[in-house]
Amino acid sequence: MNLIFVIGTAGSGKSTLTASFTRFLEFHREDVMAVNLDPGSIILPYVANVDVREYIKVEELMEEYGLGPNGGLMLAHDMITGIVEDLSREIEGFTPDICIIDTPGQMELFAFRNIGAQIAHDLTTAEKGIIYLFDGVFCRDPLNYVMNMFLASAINTKFLLPQFQVISKIDLLTENQINEIVGWSEDPFLLEDSVDAKLSGMNRVISQDMIEVINRLGIDFAPVPVSSSTTEGFDYLYAELMRVFTDGGRFTP
What stretch of H or E contains 205? Predict the structure, then answer.
């Protein structure tokens, strides 16, 4: 069994990709399932085979403890550690070959607190990896692209799992915009030139400093451009997952 956690900033398309990529894998006859780990979700674009909301309800926590929305979400996420064994048993009961896990919309609650890495470690004994979403619409700006590189690097060092960067929403970008973003990942000098040309003042300085830190970490970036609306790029993402987890073969024999 292989677990793939989908992580990204709010609005980057985590739930939409979970829905679309799960259907894509089903079409390719993979034994796949979808899991919702976001207790704050209201409506999901997919049917979750395992849903954390069946155990934890944010509204009930807010009422019981007199919390606001943010406090309710933080408590709900902390409580997930107490039901990891239950979630693991549910997932293992489906015996999937690949499991796509939709993580909380507020990335900082999951990715940058110890709870996220702990849940990822304890959730079954399966092989695990991370899909990190670069919101394609926002990454047209080199500052936002560099910031996503920085966030992806932080997640990589915290979770220590195979990580696949993905540029989402490319159906909303022009071909030139896609090529420019991809070019930044292929040639660091192009990114530095764009930072110099398009940014000024503190934004330029911050971007240059973040690039320097990222370079010292030695993390390679080769984000896969995809569209959850058209499934463009899913073939390549699928191939990358197979290359890392199954030596190029299908997940389901």
Answer: helix 201-217
DSSP, collapsed to helix, strand or coil, labels residue 163 as strand
CB contact at 8 A, 177 and 38: no
Residue 186 belongs to a domain: no
- pTM for this entry: 0.94
- Closest to 94 (Cα-Cα) out of 49, 54, 127: 49
Segment 77-103, tens digit of pLDDT: 899 999 999 999 999 999 999 999 999
- Of 119, 134, 130, the residue nearest 160 (C-alpha): 130
3-state DSSP assignment of residue 175: helix
Pairing between β-strand 2-8 and β-strand 224-225 as defined by DSSP bridges: unpaired
Domains identified in the chain, total number: 1
Give residue 100's domain range: 2-141+160-171+221-245
Q: Return phi, psi of residue 130, to 5°.
A: -130, 135
